[in-house]
Write the structure tokens for this entry.
Amino acid sequence: MMAASGAGRLRFAGALLLAATFAVGGLGGYSLAQLAGRGDAAQADQPECEDRERNRARYYESLGVSPEQKARIDEILEARKQQMDLFWAEHGPRMEQIVDSARAEIRNVLTPEQRAEADRRRAERRAKREREEEACKKLQENT
């Protein structure tokens, strides 16, 4: 009985974490895109570099946040960042195992041609991400 309860809690925590990750990622991406004006087709080929300080400053300015509010919000975000870092240090490897396991199961359902296409697309996404990371590093070095 105790093992089932623990597994249920772990499953619930995992589902909650996944939902929170998607929600935060979606909202954060949307907000950053709006702040950065990424909706323009002319900017579609530019790397999406993460400049937290500049984006946060724009956000504060758009809301009319006072210096006192900014200081308090920064404290809150830093505390949450530390909590999230600790959480991912502890649970990140298990999440990777779950994702890898799901990916392997899905590959078993696909035909050889579909697997090849899925692998090609995954490699393409990885290469694009690596190119963007490199471009962002160069941009940060030049600023």
Observations:
- Residues 14 and 91 are 9 Å apart (CA to CA).
- Residues 38-43 have pLDDT under 50 and may be disordered.
